[in-house]
Amino acid sequence: MTRFPNLRRSRARRLPAAVTTAMLLLISAGLMMPGSATAAGPDTSEPGYWLVASPTTTVGELADDLSKRGYDVMEGLSPDGAPILATAAQAQRLRRDGLSVRYTGPLYQPVPASVQAAAGTYYGGYHTAAAHEAHNQQVVTAHPELAALKTIGQSWLKTQNRGGHDIQALCITKITTGDCALSTTGSKPKFTLMAQMHARELATGELAYMWIDYLVANYGKVAAVTTLMDTTELWVIPIANPDGVDIVSSNSTRPVSQRKNAHDNGCSGTGRGVDLNRNSSYHWDVNQGTKCTETYPGASAGSEPETRAIQSFLSSIYRDTKPAADFSAATTATTGTFLTLHSYAELNIYPYGWTNSLAPNNTDLKTIAANMAKSNKYTVVHGDGGLNYFAPGATDDWIYGTLGVPGYTIEVGPSSSSCSGFFPAYSCMASFWSLNLPAFMTLGTAAAKPYPTGS
């Protein structure tokens, strides 16, 4: 039996006994995990989703240890095990360690033969990084009075003169003098939505694409959209990790499970790169992972050009209203909100993610997250409460801890059916959109005065 010494205890949210019992019954029937409802036997040629359990440790402790050992641990605590993405060979190694390992579903969903892949799309309809860039330009050309496009930095490969991409940010508002400048002096509050920082989280980039189209198509037609665009700058970074997305989309029917950027680090396959959501300059933690693990935080805080580009951009448009101390509150004069989209776990996450201690603006931060939950019905959490781990070096913590701007993460997608996992069927985008559009509107509206109580 493998022991797991020196493990922290995960403070996962407690579930009512009746709910826990119901979930256990569903799990035993194969209905609560990623992939097919029946969770048929694994395809040994490619990774799949598995549930790992230990008779001697809590789920949170187990998940923490598996992550440190280099396993790809999923978000969202199951009541009876830690969910991972792994090959059959990796699962067998865990069994030899004395752990219980059960297959719960495939990584990929079938792409219907009837789907005709449009130019710039893959895996049933998801857009490539190049297609996102073309779309950004098309929107600006068609709606110059409503949109402006900015280049805010470069991807790692572009900094090496090896192809790569510019990092793009789109500003959407009814443009008047002074709007959409990279300046903190503008008169309108800002809401920024950022997607596909983790390249394999396909649904997030598509939601950004749909958000852009929804705004420009409904100005002057939908009162709430018109009011929001008249009063607020709505910034969108549709693809925060374009090199990673190129890797993912290089196989149109079996996307590559690349989470990190494309920084060469001597690792093969999806071990290549740096986890951009562990690389910020706020509470960066060298112990988050070694070079080839999924949460490798990089050689130093802010080591990656994508990270530096995003932080520089956000610092250029948001005013700093928070003292440097972690637990000093931002002022009630703060304006702006920020959202980064990830998948999957059906969570609305608010600061902090590096600790379970309450942020100084906890009441107001939690209120906004709860308002988001009124539409998407996702669980509201902070710290490690809805994940299997803390996330030091994450962007949402950086923008709150550094500038005082409320930063949120939405983990899109359920833990079951063809709409779960990193690679949900493209048909799932309709439900993801209907659930999360009101949450986006909530954050946009909150940008004018996010801390009404100052507590």
From TrEMBL:
InterPro entries: CARBOXYPEPT_ZN_2 (IPR057247), Peptidase_M14 (IPR000834). It comes from Actinoplanes subglobosus. This is M14 family zinc carboxypeptidase. It comes from the Bacteria. Residues 251-271 are annotated as: Disordered. The keyword Protease applies. The active site is at 411 (proton donor/acceptor). Residues 1-39 form the signal peptide. Keywords: Carboxypeptidase, Hydrolase, Metal-binding, Metalloprotease, Protease, Signal, Zinc. The keyword Zinc applies. Belongs to the peptidase M14 family. Gene3D superfamilies: Zn peptidases (3.40.630.10). SMART domains: Zn_pept. The lineage of its organism: Bacteria, Bacillati, Actinomycetota, Actinomycetes, Micromonosporales. One of its GO terms (molecular function) is carboxypeptidase activity. PROSITE patterns: CARBOXYPEPT_ZN_2, PEPTIDASE_M14. Residues 125-447 form the Peptidase M14 domain. Its cofactor is Zn(2+).
